[in-house]
Amino acid sequence: MRVRRRSAFALVTLSSIALLGTTAPAVAAPDDGLLTAAATCSETPRELPINEFTDHRELGVELDRIERVSGGKVQVEQLGRSNRGREIHSARVGTGPKAVLLTSEIHGNEKTGTDAILDLLDFVGTSDSAKAKRWRSELTIVAIPKMNPDGAELDRRGNDMTWPEVTARHPQLRGVQPAWNYYTGSTQGDDYSKRPGFDINRDYHPDLNYVPRKEDFPGTSAQTGWYLSPETSIVRDVYRGLTAEFGKVDTYVDLHHQGACYVMPDDPEEFVTLSISGKFVDDPATTPGYEKYASKYDLKYSKQLNVAVNNALQGAANNRPVFGNVTLYPQDTNLPGTGLGSFALNGSGTVLFEVRGQTQTLGQQYRAVLTKSVYIGLDGMLSSIASGKVRTLDPADYDRIPPRGPNIGTAAEAEARLDG
Ligand SMILES: [Zn+2]
């Protein structure tokens, strides 16, 4: 009988590795062993510690610190406030002609992206290395970390906004059926009955000047969103401003987490560390109603950006194999109401990061290594954009990134599917 590898919830120690005896598979490094598929993996939501992640108050402190030590290279701005009144900040660095927009924590239970952005801002704002100088001269990086602070503080997917608050903000919607992405029940272990909210990653619209109309409700996942929430409206305003300033936003990246129990397609013993994608909408050229976006839509560039991300992670896998466990996120999605879908239709190259495990299944477990995987992918992508090399990458390499293997979790597949 095959000896199972370590439980995902057990600490690997030298003695426990030794106890596995001669049939134990080789473990490249202790932390890689921790991320290797185990006897059990569960998608069942549960209460787990998250205090090592950066909360909203700490984010403000850390952005202030980075702005200060950067000597003016990083500029922090308060963009506005969430529905519950929490500040939403942007941090801008670089003076280059290519605009790169980064967002994190639109789903408040998906937290590594915020920490990766802070690490990145710290580097590009303070380093005198040739790489940092090139980024600053070729790129203008604008980051909006923790763009859904209300959801983040509640440690849940949705924001914190009732339908009556929506109709108070948009009086023309009085009397219509609430949007399809309005949560009032239980989702991912969170009870929305007393504090309803929305999956605001379905609240975007490719028409950046769209105003909510009665006839567009309740909508569906295959249709556009509405900018109902202050959070998505703030990101839209930044995107619109960058488009006016630079002609277009070269690249947009949104940082997420997916289910904890996806395994590699060729090795059920290895968990997927990260899924990536550059495709979120059907081809606008052949989709009725979307033809006007076809001339700007650039799937080839999105594929090249994803190849740059994957190449960086495969390079890092030489030292730590876990970074090589990269797969493509499902390519059959058509989600024009996501930020990535809407901004791709406006001509930006787009990259989705889906790191392993949301907080209700992993808590802060593997926080450091998963944050590092996001950082490595962003670092490689930014270097490739700054040097221009990204435009020489073969988009066919994107299609050669393996698909996700199955989810071996023990809870309902429906929960695991709520990962975009
Ligand atoms: Zn997400």
From TrEMBL:
InterPro entries: Peptidase_M14 (IPR000834)
Swiss-Prot/TrEMBL keywords: Hydrolase, Metalloprotease, Protease, Signal, Zinc
Region of interest: Disordered: 397-420
Keyword Signal: yes
Residues in Peptidase M14 domain copies: 53-413
Cofactor(s) the record lists: Zn(2+)
Xref: SUPFAM superfamilies: Zn-dependent exopeptidases
Signal sequence interval, chain numbering: 1-28
SMART domains listed in its UniProt record: Zn_pept
Keyword field contains Signal: yes
Family, similarity comment: Belongs to the peptidase M14 family.
Protein name: Peptidase M14 domain-containing protein
